[in-house]
Task: inverse folding
């Protein structure tokens, strides 16, 4: 039974835990790091590291999505981003990289994203990804899925990511025809990743739509403002563990259909990646860490996809910072600082080796302790 506390007469609240509040416990066995595999497979698509890029224009251009794919991860391009609104958004990205923290950044983002999406550019960007020889994945919001899906599918994507701050399998509306995820996914012959979600019930319902993967979390980091704007904040360790329980029950319900969990939030270091996978995730979604790679589209600046919302932005603008290293160094090393921000997946491999596990599925069985610090 989950711990609950009475916060007042007639109202209780359940206790949730952040990744920073749990610690990985080594087992009785250790293993040579060269015998450890971080390989991950989503449907027919293999990856050498469990890394999915957050589809922010600060991190993902067609070029960086291809670069991440060649390094073993999954780059995801935002089909509603600057690259599908402008023929060449490099000048806009450069100006955002020079943006000071003077209170005008959000308005500047809103102005940049006010330009309409050009369907022809959506197809062109997807073709650029395909020419790069990597797995092609694009993100679309639930609100624009039906409108953009024909263009996206005609251009030939491998994976479709339907992502919003909070996505449910049952959206109720008295004004618009809502997206029926189950019907939509059933009509496709490609894997779909949906999210985010934050609890057992929503994760289970999203799995029942036929999704191949579910995003867990709302991208919470130091720049996210979903808590202050909407009052919504779910600690990631608990959110992942709840979704993993839903996956276990769905596996029994379907006689063996496995749905992958992608953790999105509270992940900045290799230690955070290890904890997220130990809680039950199959992969992690990285945003700000990738924004600090040499050649990142926004030159070290960072913002969430929802930060440019025209009416209710949810995400502060992170001014540009100096790069920490090349994308390869951030993912695979070598690291020149001992803080876990470089060689992210080398750190994961080392954690798995120290705990005696040879692959990611085994590592999900590792013991955890609550950290009393």
Result:
């Amino acid at each position: 039974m989950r711990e609950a506390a009475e916060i007042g007469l007639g109202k209780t609240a359940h206790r949730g835990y952040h990744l920073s509040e749990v610690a990985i416990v080594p087992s009785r066995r250790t293993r040579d790091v060269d015998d450890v595999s971080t390989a991950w497979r989503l449907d027919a698509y293999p990856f050498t590291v469990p890394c999915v890029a957050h589809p922010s224009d600060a991190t993902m251009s067609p070029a960086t999505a291809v670069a991440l794919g060649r390094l073993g991860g999954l780059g995801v391009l935002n089909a509603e981003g600057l690259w599908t609104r402008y023929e060449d958004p490099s000048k806009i990205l450069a100006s955002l990289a020079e943006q000071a923290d003077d209170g005008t950044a959000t308005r500047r983002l809103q102005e940049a994203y006010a330009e309409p999406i050009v369907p022809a550019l959506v197809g062109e960007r997807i073709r650029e990804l395909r020419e790069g020889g990597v797995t092609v994945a694009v993100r679309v919001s639930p609100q624009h899925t039906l409108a953009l899906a024909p263009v996206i599918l005609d251009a030939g994507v491998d994976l479709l990511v339907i992502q919003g701050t909070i996505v449910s399998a049952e959206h109720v509306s008295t004004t618009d025809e809502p997206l029926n995820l189950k019907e939509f996914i059933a009509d496709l012959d490609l894997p779909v990743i949906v999210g985010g979600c934050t609890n057992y019930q929503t994760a289970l319902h999203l799995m029942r739509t036929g999704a191949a993967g579910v995003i867990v979390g709302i991208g919470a980091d130091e720049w996210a403002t979903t808590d202050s704007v909407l009052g919504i904040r779910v600690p990631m360790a608990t959110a992942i563990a709840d979704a993993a329980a839903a996956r276990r029950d769905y596996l029994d319900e379907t006689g063996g259909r496995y749905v992958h969990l992608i953790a999105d939030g509270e992940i900045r270091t290799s230690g955070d990646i290890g904890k997220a996978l130990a809680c039950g995730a199959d992969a992690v979604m990285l945003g700000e860490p990738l924004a600090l790679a040499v050649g990142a589209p926004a030159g070290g600046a960072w913002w969430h996809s929802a930060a440019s919302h025209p009416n209710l932005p949810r995400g502060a603008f992170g001014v540009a910072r100096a790069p920490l290293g090349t994308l390869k160094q951030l993912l695979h090393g070598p690291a020149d600082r001992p803080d876990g921000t470089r060689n992210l997946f080398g750190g994961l491999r080392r954690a798995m080796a120290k705990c005696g596990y040879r692959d990611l599925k085994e590592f999900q069985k590792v013991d955890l302790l609550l950290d009393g610090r």
Notes: The first strand starts at residue 4 and ends at 8. The chain has one domain: 43-331. The longest helix spans residues 236-254.
